Amino acid sequence: MGKGRKMEEKKQVYFDHGSTSWPKAPGVAEAMAELLQKGAFNINRGSYEGAYEVEEVVLKTRDQLARLFGAQDSRNVIFTPGITYSLNYFIKGFLKPGDHVLVSGLEHNAVMRPLKQMEGKGVAWDVVRTEEDGTVRPESVEDAINSHTKAVIMLHASNVCGTVLPIREIGEICRRRHLYFAVDTAQSAGTIPVDMEGSGIDFLAFTGHKGLLGPQGIGGFLISEELDRSMSPYIAGGTGSQSDSLEMPESLPDKYESGTLNLPGIIGLHAALSYIEETGIESVHRRKMELTRYFLERVLEYPDLRIVGKQGIQDRTAVVSLDFLKRDNAIAAFELEQEYGIMTRVGLHCAPMAHRTLGTFPQGTVRFAFGMENQEEEIDRCLEGIRMILARK
Fold it and tell me: What's the CA gap between 28 and 146, in Å, rounded?
């Protein structure tokens, strides 16, 4: 009984925002509940006022995403169940036998597993030289291009070490060399400004539940007009439009939005995007980096601990991975949670290639990812826990 009461009283500290944001933005849960309670009508199907009202919010959400990512037309915003689906749409809907693709050495399995599948169908890929701190130099991308290269697929920021890649410079190379550029913004959207047009991005994949502070199960992609003409819909089915034809519509967004959309997820994302617009991405990023600096400066003083990737806050997000050099990382993460209430993520983070690049395979790391709601006193508590764990024999 006494132990149970102690566990109940232990304050939980959430440092796993790289996995999903929590708490969600104010108003997200209420907006989703209102839809489900007052009229979860289907758009593009129902010919009545309630359905049209829901459709209006969906259109507003497309507009918000187009503004956020610097796209010219909200028709080019496509909703999917998540960023993994989005990346599969590009990899399997665009690439063909004989094509060659370049990736960074930090990619998530959301890119590498579908690429590995496509390898069996004649698609080749190479890894651009990536430094041990996660740095990718634009010239390394240019050096790796060959006559069969059709696209570059890269994450904007690493989910393992937080390193931010120079997508604007890489996008310029892709434009000059007539390559399509696909960017995974899972760890940057909502935190670091992304300008699709200005960065030469043809395919921008996003998720709603991380930096965008929305619910799980909603994501999507934005696509350039040129790429759209060369890409086929990976999934086909009903769209509520051109129902007289057995062919998929060619118009956007219907071309890529088969089946019933996750309307509660879109409504929740709309509320989250409204909050981000009101708060400002610059304010969000500034607060997260204040916390990251506070954490890094103190962790640098600890022996037997390796900071994976960049040591400072330049060109990085609020994701920090630590390698406990004389203690099993999984045990350290378990002790932090059980004894201090610190919630982290330990392991390979669905990115084994990144860990090979960073020199942390197969042991993985303990990852700390901060959100703007976290506080310095929570970091102090975490640091004390790390100090105590490192002191154990």
Answer: 46
Strand boundaries in the chain, DSSP class E: 13-14, 77-80, 100-103, 124-127, 149-155, 180-184, 203-207, 219-223, 305-308, 319-324, 342-343, 345-347, 365-369
DSSP state of 16: B
pTM of the model: 0.94
User: Do residues 28 and 359 touch, judged by C-beta distance below 8 A?
Assistant: no
* Nearest alpha-carbon partner for 206 in 115, 56, 76, 79: 79
List pLDDT tens digits, range 12-24. 999 999 999 999 9
Spatial contact of 239 and 44, defined as CB atoms under 8 Å apart: yes
Residue 83, both tokens? 């960023």
Contact 218, 209 (CB under 8 A): yes
Q: Is residue 322 a contact partner of residue 308, using CB atoms and an 8 Å limit?
A: yes
The structure tokens 């949670």 sit at 337
CA distance 81 to 103: 23
Largest distance between two CA atoms of the chain: 72
Task: For the chain, give the percent of residues with pLDDT over 90.
Answer: 89
pLDDT 10s digits, 363-386: 999 999 999 999 999 999 999 999
3-state secondary structure of 80: strand
| Dihedral sign computed on CA atoms, order 178, 174, 351, 291 | negative
Q: Rounded distance, CA 172 to CA 181, Å?
A: 10
Burial of 258 (0-12, 13-18, 19+ CB in 10 A): middle
